[in-house]
Amino acid sequence: MSHTLNEKLSKVSSAPGVYLMKDPEGKVIYVGKARNLKRRLASYFNKPAQADLKTSVLVKKIASFETIITGTEQEALLLESNLIKRHRPRYNVILKDDKRYPSLRLDIKHPYPNLTVVRKTENDGAMYFGPFTSSSAVWRTFKIINKTFRLRKCKTRVFKNRSRPCLNYQIGTCLGPCCFDVDKTVYNEMLKEVILFLKGRTPELIQKIKKEMMAAAEAQEYENAAVLRDKMFALENILEKQVAVTTDFKDRDILGIARSPEFTLMTILFIRGGYLLGTRHFSFTETLSTDAEMVSAFIRQYYEKQSHFVPKEIFIPFPIEDVALTEAWLKNIKGEKVSILQPRRGEKTRLIQMAIQNAENELKNKISSAAAESDMLARLQKALKMTRLPNRIECFDNSNISGTNPVAGMVVFEKGKPDKTSYRKYNIRTVTKPDDYAYMAEVMKRRYGKGKASEPWPDLLMLDGGKGQLNIAVSVLRELNIEGEFEVIGIAKKDEKNGETEDKIYKPGRANPVNMGKKDLLFLLQRIRDEAHRYAISFHRRRRSQTAVISVLDTVPGIGKKRKQTLLQHFGSIQNIRTATPEEISRLPGMNRNLAEAVKEKLKTKS
């Protein structure tokens, strides 16, 4: 440790607080909290050898540190969380899985609630169930409920305006509350059954339906008994496919962890009503955190995003330092007590072992996949005669229709995987006539023309196009004085008329396409090209749609910026405004009947 760090460490307080590690450039690379700042920081610098080689290497990157003293550990916990969000330090545990997993939403405030699939949960008084680990799982559950229970299927907006029952009522899968006076007691009873099912209480629900079936049979209500029998059989069939893992039927999340020199894998098992419903895996690469610190950080970050799905118990594989503080934080989110436990014997330790085994298995798969990806990138480097591995590949594509609303998109693949946080969209600003070459020149200057601010450079730049686009790219890089900073290639579609059987890869200064060898290398480049194409087209469609909506509403007398915004925020799209009634539109703030009819008339003529 340097003399400066040693001197600074001697002055650190023993109070609770937060510390920020910085690299030689002053960038925050790690944020941590401690009950005793002096002791915690000393554990990094004063040990003769770190617990492992990787941690030792990471500690050597620390050039300085800062400390912030807090009044309590609780304050340190909150401050640490806020600083991690602000700085996103490289060596902290940060959940980069920002994907919104699907959930089921039950709007219990409505007189006749219905079930919908959503990806965003809100504090709106509705009940949420999930999250489901895949869209296929949530839609499968949604289909089972729609088939087994006779909840309404139509959307709330359609429900208000429906005058005739839909097909679901005709085939007996909906009670038709949109058109008939359905007894709310009957509907609410059915709603309770759906909630029991979604909470994993299937055995309890089956017993309830069985009693009702027997009672209906004794009362000689044979048709009703037959309906209940079919429902019971359907639920029993579902129950057979579920795996029972506990006998106390509690809701729990089980955490497991596995580590290797390259990765750390966190696995969470979802147990609801004693049944294992699914798993999720989260991987991390470089971190200065210990296993216990990782588990603690993971709990705080994961349940902050999944506040609707906090169970009553969370099992962890080893004790964490701030368990009481974390339990208090979870209680504040859930509204009731949440226990973080480390089972030491019995069937509960088996659950921990199951989570660890799943984590270890997923870690093996990840290491194997990473090795395969590394081998593929090495072969791609050799095929393209590159001086370094193409770890970062950037690809551009343009999109327009006859020169209208021209846009471009850039996608980024890191180590063979899409890095969607680095994707970029570009509205073409300076080119007024249809010209793909000019579009590409403008976009490349905007991406690479800012000097050091443009970094990181890609290892490989790929353009969707043949030699023409490639020549434009080379001339722009030469003009920006960065030619040679990275490799450039063009990918052109095969010409079937000339007997070509596969797409072609071109390099600057070479007349013939590159021989890519094994097809998996070409497939990788095609996948990147197709992703850039999809990204650019979706951006173009969205921009064109927005332009169309704005132009139509702008032509309605009396509809200014504020009213236009109100309409779009409430209805979501021009199509929803078109299908809404004048009464619905006139009820919005700032609207009246005359304006509503003017909007309807204008949209009718523009349909």
Automatic annotation (TrEMBL):
<comment type="subunit">
    <text>Interacts with UvrB in an incision complex.</text>
</comment>
<dbReference type="InterPro" id="IPR047296">
    <property type="entry name" value="GIY-YIG_UvrC_Cho"/>
</dbReference>
<keyword id="KW-0228">DNA excision</keyword>
<dbReference type="GO" id="GO:0006289">
    <property type="term" value="P:nucleotide-excision repair"/>
</dbReference>
<keyword id="KW-0234">DNA repair</keyword>
<dbReference type="InterPro" id="IPR035901">
    <property type="entry name" value="GIY-YIG_endonuc_sf"/>
</dbReference>
<dbReference type="InterPro" id="IPR001943">
    <property type="entry name" value="UVR_dom"/>
</dbReference>
<dbReference type="GO" id="GO:0009380">
    <property type="term" value="C:excinuclease repair complex"/>
</dbReference>
<comment type="function">
    <text>The UvrABC repair system catalyzes the recognition and processing of DNA lesions. UvrC both incises the 5' and 3' sides of the lesion. The N-terminal half is responsible for the 3' incision and the C-terminal half is responsible for the 5' incision.</text>
</comment>
<protein>
    <recommendedName>
        <fullName>UvrABC system protein C</fullName>
    </recommendedName>
</protein>
<feature type="domain" description="UvrC family homology region profile">
    <location>
        <begin position="254"/>
        <end position="477"/>
    </location>
</feature>
<dbReference type="GO" id="GO:0009381">
    <property type="term" value="F:excinuclease ABC activity"/>
</dbReference>
<feature type="domain" description="GIY-YIG">
    <location>
        <begin position="14"/>
        <end position="93"/>
    </location>
</feature>
<keyword id="KW-0963">Cytoplasm</keyword>
<feature type="domain" description="UVR">
    <location>
        <begin position="203"/>
        <end position="238"/>
    </location>
</feature>
<dbReference type="Pfam" id="PF01541">
    <property type="entry name" value="GIY-YIG"/>
</dbReference>
<dbReference type="InterPro" id="IPR004791">
    <property type="entry name" value="UvrC"/>
</dbReference>
<keyword id="KW-0742">SOS response</keyword>
<dbReference type="InterPro" id="IPR050066">
    <property type="entry name" value="UvrABC_protein_C"/>
</dbReference>
<dbReference type="InterPro" id="IPR010994">
    <property type="entry name" value="RuvA_2-like"/>
</dbReference>
<dbReference type="Pfam" id="PF14520">
    <property type="entry name" value="HHH_5"/>
</dbReference>
<dbReference type="InterPro" id="IPR000305">
    <property type="entry name" value="GIY-YIG_endonuc"/>
</dbReference>
<dbReference type="InterPro" id="IPR036876">
    <property type="entry name" value="UVR_dom_sf"/>
</dbReference>
<keyword id="KW-0227">DNA damage</keyword>
<dbReference type="GO" id="GO:0009432">
    <property type="term" value="P:SOS response"/>
</dbReference>
<dbReference type="GO" id="GO:0003677">
    <property type="term" value="F:DNA binding"/>
</dbReference>
<dbReference type="InterPro" id="IPR038476">
    <property type="entry name" value="UvrC_RNase_H_dom_sf"/>
</dbReference>
<dbReference type="InterPro" id="IPR001162">
    <property type="entry name" value="UvrC_RNase_H_dom"/>
</dbReference>
<comment type="similarity">
    <text>Belongs to the UvrC family.</text>
</comment>
<dbReference type="GO" id="GO:0005737">
    <property type="term" value="C:cytoplasm"/>
</dbReference>
<dbReference type="Pfam" id="PF22920">
    <property type="entry name" value="UvrC_RNaseH"/>
</dbReference>
<dbReference type="Pfam" id="PF08459">
    <property type="entry name" value="UvrC_RNaseH_dom"/>
</dbReference>
<dbReference type="Pfam" id="PF02151">
    <property type="entry name" value="UVR"/>
</dbReference>
<keyword id="KW-0267">Excision nuclease</keyword>
